[in-house]
């Protein structure tokens, strides 16, 4: 019953592989298809998600100074796995599930990218997301190629037991086709999946590879009890917060947007209140911003006085909707929340949420792409022409893959970050403080002493590594934007393309 379509680029056959790939998965039109939720904001003539990613790539490629030969190799999706398998839903019912995994680039290994459970999943979406992953990893100097997986289903329509069977069966396909492994391809959570699914994936991989001592590194975003790293859950949202905070410091951003440098007091609207949207909202809120609107798939909540993020989260968890929450105004057509007046707009749901149909109504001064691909090329151009600041997905939501990288390192080293050094550092600082006290003639209080000698916990090291990474990548993007006199998305892509080209060129390009 399993119908795999497995394509892999082999030495010297790039063009043939591309041709084969397109033939095997259907006419190009099918690859560029998008469905209703991701079409609402877009005109028919606007490109689909993959077309958008390729359009942005082509613009950056033109000014990257990288050779045509390198560019052709970088742009193409390397390998695609397409499977259909039966799953028993109850003793009398079997359904066929469709799944994909695309590896866009293997210039560095393993490939890395999330697995999405959504009934919007199709091949072009998975390929677009895999391409973005390659560029994203390069932007934040995470040494991975890009990949992405998707299973076409609405997880809300299945019980946990059914979801477990589906996840394990999908993982079995990945194992059999060599599309998973700590040195090959390492999935992570994305829309519709989380730590629970990552646990099932790891456990299944282990059953197939009992001899692999690094098995825990076959997937990231796991619960801490299963080898996950503290801080991964909130990493993407926290990275979004760090990135926006950094951009607000730049004088050119302040000039373009008219915004001041502080987060405190800024009004923020978030679309999508899942993993990324919730954590981003929480970090903005905790740092003094006012979350005035949150959009979900059914309705949006709006309160110009600010929504309490934790309270509205709990309300939605209990009632399944924002309806009935405090003084919040309910907006029945949730996409409209993005058109309200605010300083910062954070699309954190899905791709193609701002297109030619709604872009002229966007009033936010800064748009931070927490989701992948939320703005189409034409809409992006319009926003930039209006002097709005767009911080692109491949930079702003890279916190997730950055901390996934830390988790993978932890799994390969088989030790918690800080375990070997924490007490040693504390002892050293303790001795130093004693000397300082003797010379200063004053004793520190126990609290003061504890605050200074405190050795870093795992989550503190993870936060520190993430903050440093985001600040570095924002600075690099800004510098290229100034050098090339271009927008921040094109600048981030130029940086990515140049870094990937350096890796492939200096490797000798044996297989091109
Ligand atoms: P999630 O499934 O946890 O949350 C998505 C949320 O968006 C859900 O609450 C869903 O109900 C809501 N939603 C769906 N359709 C909507 C619509 N039309 N309008 C408003 N809300 C809608 O997924 P996530 O992990 O938070 O991912 C969100 C986005 O961030 C995706 O584009 C994903 O690719 C991207 N991303 C995620 C990560 C990560 O670490 N999870 C990392 C980088 C990028």
UniProtKB/TrEMBL annotation:
Active site per UniProt: 148
Site positions for Important for catalysis: 190
Amino acids binding NAD(+): 236, 275
Pfam families documented for this protein: ELFV_dehydrog (PF00208), ELFV_dehydrog_N (PF02812)
Gene Ontology BP terms: L-glutamate catabolic process
Recorded family membership: Belongs to the Glu/Leu/Phe/Val dehydrogenases family.
The protein's name in its UniProt record: Glutamate dehydrogenase
High-level lineage: Eukaryota, Fungi, Fungi incertae sedis, Mucoromycota, Mortierellomycotina
Gene it is expressed from: GLUD1_1
């Amino acid at each position: 019953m399993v119908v795999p379509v497995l394509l892999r680029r082999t030495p010297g056959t790039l063009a043939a592989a591309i041709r084969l790939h397109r033939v095997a998965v259907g006419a190009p039109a099918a690859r560029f298809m998008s469905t209703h939720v991701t079409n609402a904001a877009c005109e028919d003539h606007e490109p689909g998600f993959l077309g958008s990613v390729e359009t942005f790539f082509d613009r950056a490629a033109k000014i990257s100074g990288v050779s045509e030969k390198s560019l052709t190799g970088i742009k193409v999706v390397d390998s695609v796995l397409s499977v259909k398998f039966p799953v028993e839903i109850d003793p009398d019912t079997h359904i066929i599930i469709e799944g994909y995994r695309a590896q866009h680039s293997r210039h560095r290994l393993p490939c890395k990218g999330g697995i999405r459970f959504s009934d919007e999943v199709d091949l072009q979406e998975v390929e677009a997301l895999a391409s973005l992953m390659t560029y994203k990893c390069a932007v934040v100097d995470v040494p991975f190629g890009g990949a992405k997986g998707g299973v076409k289903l609405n997880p809300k329509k299945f019980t946990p037991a059914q979801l477990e069977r589906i996840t394990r069966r999908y993982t079995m396909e990945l194992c059999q086709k060599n599309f998973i492994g700590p040195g090959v391809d390492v999935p992570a959570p994305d829309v519709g999946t989380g730590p629970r699914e990552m646990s099932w994936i790891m456990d299944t991989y282990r059953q197939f590879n009992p001899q692999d001592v690094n098995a825990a590194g076959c997937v990231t975003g796991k619960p801490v009890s299963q080898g996950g790293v503290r801080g991964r859950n909130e990493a993407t949202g926290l990275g979004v917060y760090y990135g926006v905070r950094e951009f607000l410091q730049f004088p050119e951003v302040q000039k373009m947007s008219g915004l001041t440098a502080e987060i405190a007091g800024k009004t923020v609207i978030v679309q999508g209140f899942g993993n990324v949207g919730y954590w981003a909202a929480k970090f903005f809120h905790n740092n003094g911003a006012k979350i005035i609107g949150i959009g979900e798939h059914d309705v949006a909540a709006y309160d110009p006085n600010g929504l309490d993020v934790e309270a509205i989260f709990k309300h939605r968890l209990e009632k399944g909707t924002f309806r009935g929450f405090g003084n919040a105004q309910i907006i029945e057509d949730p996409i409209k929340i993005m058109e309200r007046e605010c300083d910062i707009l954070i699309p954190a749901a899905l791709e193609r949420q701002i297109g030619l149909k709604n872009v002229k109504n966007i009033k936010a001064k800064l748009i931070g792409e927490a989701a992948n691909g939320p703005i189409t090329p034409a809409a992006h151009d319009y926003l930039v022409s209006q002097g709005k600041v767009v911080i692109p997905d491949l930079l702003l939501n890279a916190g997730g893959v950055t901390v996934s990288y830390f988790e993978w390192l932890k799994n390969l080293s088989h030790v918690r970050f800080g375990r070997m050094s924490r007490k040693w550092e504390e002892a050293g600082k303790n001795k130093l403080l004693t000397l300082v006290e003797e010379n200063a003639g004053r004793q520190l209080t126990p609290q003061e002493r504890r605050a200074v000698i405190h050795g870093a916990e795992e989550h503190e090291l993870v936060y520190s590594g993430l903050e440093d990474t985001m600040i570095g990548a924002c600075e690099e993007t800004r510098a290229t934007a100034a050098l090339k006199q271009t927008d921040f998305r094109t600048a981030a892509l130029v940086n990515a393309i140049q870094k990937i080209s350096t890796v492939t060129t200096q490797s000798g390009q044996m297989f091109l």
